[in-house]
Amino acid sequence: MPVSKDRITLTGLRVQANHGVFDFERANGQLFVIDVTAWLDLSPAALSDDLANTVHYGELAEEVVAAVANDPVDLIETVAERVAQVVLAHAPVQKVEVTVHKPQAPISVEFADVAVTIERSR
To answer: Per the database record, which ranges form the Dihydroneopterin aldolase/epimerase domain (predicted)?
Structure first.
Protein backbone atom coordinates (compact mmCIF):
# COMPACT_ATOMS: atom_id res chain seq x y z
CA MET A 1 0.00 0.00 0.00
CA PRO A 2 1.47 3.39 -0.96
CA VAL A 3 2.16 5.92 1.80
CA SER A 4 -0.48 8.61 2.08
CA LYS A 5 0.48 12.12 1.03
CA ASP A 6 -1.45 13.48 4.03
CA ARG A 7 0.57 14.42 7.07
CA ILE A 8 0.55 15.95 10.52
CA THR A 9 3.56 18.11 11.34
CA LEU A 10 4.81 19.28 14.72
CA THR A 11 7.57 21.86 14.42
CA GLY A 12 9.83 23.28 17.09
CA LEU A 13 8.89 21.21 20.14
CA ARG A 14 11.28 22.53 22.79
CA VAL A 15 12.56 20.11 25.43
CA GLN A 16 15.14 20.58 28.17
CA ALA A 17 16.99 17.26 28.50
CA ASN A 18 20.31 15.73 29.60
CA HIS A 19 21.50 13.91 26.47
CA GLY A 20 25.13 14.00 25.37
CA VAL A 21 28.46 12.24 25.54
CA PHE A 22 30.04 14.72 27.97
CA ASP A 23 29.49 14.65 31.72
CA PHE A 24 28.55 18.34 31.80
CA GLU A 25 25.80 17.74 29.23
CA ARG A 26 24.35 15.02 31.43
CA ALA A 27 24.67 17.14 34.58
CA ASN A 28 23.47 20.51 33.27
CA GLY A 29 21.18 19.55 30.42
CA GLN A 30 20.42 21.69 27.38
CA LEU A 31 17.73 22.58 24.89
CA PHE A 32 16.64 20.13 22.21
CA VAL A 33 14.20 21.10 19.46
CA ILE A 34 12.16 18.40 17.77
CA ASP A 35 10.35 18.42 14.42
CA VAL A 36 8.04 15.52 13.54
CA THR A 37 6.13 14.77 10.37
CA ALA A 38 3.76 11.80 10.42
CA TRP A 39 2.23 10.50 7.20
CA LEU A 40 -1.24 9.01 7.54
CA ASP A 41 -4.54 8.99 5.68
CA LEU A 42 -6.47 11.98 7.02
CA SER A 43 -9.55 11.44 4.85
CA PRO A 44 -11.46 9.34 7.46
CA ALA A 45 -11.08 12.15 10.00
CA ALA A 46 -11.90 14.85 7.45
CA LEU A 47 -15.05 13.08 6.28
CA SER A 48 -16.31 12.13 9.75
CA ASP A 49 -15.09 15.20 11.66
CA ASP A 50 -14.16 12.72 14.40
CA LEU A 51 -10.91 12.94 16.35
CA ALA A 52 -10.99 9.15 16.81
CA ASN A 53 -10.16 8.81 13.09
CA THR A 54 -6.80 10.58 13.26
CA VAL A 55 -3.86 11.06 15.61
CA HIS A 56 -4.46 13.67 18.31
CA TYR A 57 -1.54 16.04 17.68
CA GLY A 58 -1.73 17.52 21.17
CA GLU A 59 -1.31 14.12 22.78
CA LEU A 60 1.36 13.21 20.24
CA ALA A 61 3.32 16.35 21.15
CA GLU A 62 3.17 15.41 24.84
CA GLU A 63 4.37 11.86 24.06
CA VAL A 64 7.28 13.16 21.97
CA VAL A 65 8.34 15.61 24.68
CA ALA A 66 8.20 12.86 27.31
CA ALA A 67 10.29 10.55 25.11
CA VAL A 68 12.97 13.23 24.73
CA ALA A 69 12.94 14.48 28.32
CA ASN A 70 13.50 11.11 30.00
CA ASP A 71 16.28 8.50 30.09
CA PRO A 72 19.40 10.37 28.92
CA VAL A 73 21.43 8.85 26.07
CA ASP A 74 24.69 9.80 24.39
CA LEU A 75 23.53 10.44 20.83
CA ILE A 76 20.81 12.56 19.26
CA GLU A 77 20.50 9.75 16.72
CA THR A 78 19.19 7.59 19.57
CA VAL A 79 16.79 10.35 20.62
CA ALA A 80 15.47 10.55 17.05
CA GLU A 81 14.94 6.78 16.89
CA ARG A 82 13.07 6.87 20.21
CA VAL A 83 10.77 9.61 18.93
CA ALA A 84 10.15 7.74 15.67
CA GLN A 85 9.05 4.66 17.59
CA VAL A 86 6.66 6.72 19.73
CA VAL A 87 5.04 8.17 16.61
CA LEU A 88 4.85 4.81 14.80
CA ALA A 89 3.09 3.33 17.84
CA HIS A 90 -0.02 5.14 16.58
CA ALA A 91 -1.71 2.67 14.24
CA PRO A 92 -2.74 5.15 11.52
CA VAL A 93 0.82 6.44 11.04
CA GLN A 94 2.49 4.90 7.98
CA LYS A 95 5.76 6.85 7.96
CA VAL A 96 7.52 9.38 10.16
CA GLU A 97 10.33 11.87 9.75
CA VAL A 98 12.03 13.13 12.91
CA THR A 99 14.58 15.91 13.19
CA VAL A 100 16.37 16.45 16.49
CA HIS A 101 18.09 19.84 16.75
CA LYS A 102 20.80 20.45 19.34
CA PRO A 103 21.35 24.23 19.09
CA GLN A 104 23.58 24.34 22.18
CA ALA A 105 25.85 21.47 21.14
CA PRO A 106 29.39 21.73 22.52
CA ILE A 107 31.16 22.65 19.29
CA SER A 108 34.28 24.83 19.25
CA VAL A 109 33.24 26.91 16.21
CA GLU A 110 30.32 29.30 15.75
CA PHE A 111 27.22 27.60 14.38
CA ALA A 112 23.47 28.09 14.11
CA ASP A 113 22.29 24.52 14.64
CA VAL A 114 23.22 20.86 14.66
CA ALA A 115 20.56 18.33 13.74
CA VAL A 116 19.98 14.77 12.68
CA THR A 117 17.00 13.65 10.61
CA ILE A 118 15.71 10.11 10.29
CA GLU A 119 12.82 8.59 8.38
CA ARG A 120 11.09 5.38 9.42
CA SER A 121 8.14 3.45 7.96
CA ARG A 122 5.98 0.52 8.94
So the answer is: 8-120
User: For residues 98 and 108, what is the distance between their CA atoms, to the nearest angstrom?
Assistant: 26
Residue of 18, 122, 4 whose CA lies nearest to 72: 18
Per-residue pLDDT tens digits of the chain, which is 122 residues long: 789 999 999 999 999 999 999 999 999 999 999 999 999 999 999 999 999 999 999 999 999 999 999 999 999 999 999 999 999 999 999 999 999 999 999 999 999 999 999 999 98
Q: Do 54 and 45 touch, CB atoms closer than 8 A?
A: yes
Residues with catalytic roles: 102
